[in-house]
Amino acid sequence: xxxxxxxxxxxxxxxxxxxxxxxxxxxxxxxxxxxxxxxxxxxxxxxxxxxxxxxxxxxxxxxxxxxxxxxxxxxxxxxxxxxxxxxxxxxxxxxxxxxxxxxxxxxxxxxxxxxxxxxxxxxxxxxxxxxxxxxxxxxxxxxxxxxxxxxxxxxxxxxxxxxxxxxxxxxxxxxxxxxxxxxxxxxxxxxxxxxxxxxxxxxxxxxxxxxxxxxxxxxxxxxxxxxxxxxxxxxxxxxxxxxxxxxxxxxx
Length: 252
What we know:
It is built from three helices and 26 strands. It has helices at 22-29, 52-59, 64-67, and strands spanning 2-7, 12-16, 32-36, 45-51, 72-77, 84-87, 99-105, 113-117, 130-134, 150-151, 156-157, 162-163, 168-169, 174-175, 180-182, 186-187, 192-193, 198-200, 203-204, 209-210, 215-217, 226-227, 232-233, 236-238, 241-244, 248-251. The termini are far apart.
């Protein structure tokens, strides 16, 4: 696996590492989405991030460039080439006291790992309970002590997808791509939300699939839609609506 790094002054260099290397796997597993101010910028942006200590461990003898010199700004690897910003300890705004990512890998997708609650979350999740699978901390919010969002059973949140705002994934539900689940939404059974879709306060169940730039939203907040059956949604569904079967819509 080739690593490509960039210093704050723009200098770039690369090195190789075994994809099976424990330090490299730990760095990937601990990657997260965060707010950064790139060198030369004057405002924040959301980007993929990695911890400086994890990068230093991967770099081995060259790790001092990160741990002592703090010269490195970004690192990328693999075919997707996503640039990850290196977050140094003094820049960390918050640690995850809600859950930890365990070493329990998904049987089919080993880049996913189970989470374990570090505190009680809502009325049902207790400290020590195992949850579903994530790829990194950016998949499930932890910043607010009042946020009861959770991923349970064998549900999955992967890629740049995010679950937050008291939402729940359970059973075998999947959210991936750059999808966003928020507002107390519930995904269950074998539901799937992908691409750039947004689920805001709605319920997606059975074998339903929401994709592309779809928006499924509760509007007003007490009139939430349910996407069920084998429905496939690509557009906008809002309000007191039930979409079921092969995709027909019924008011309820």
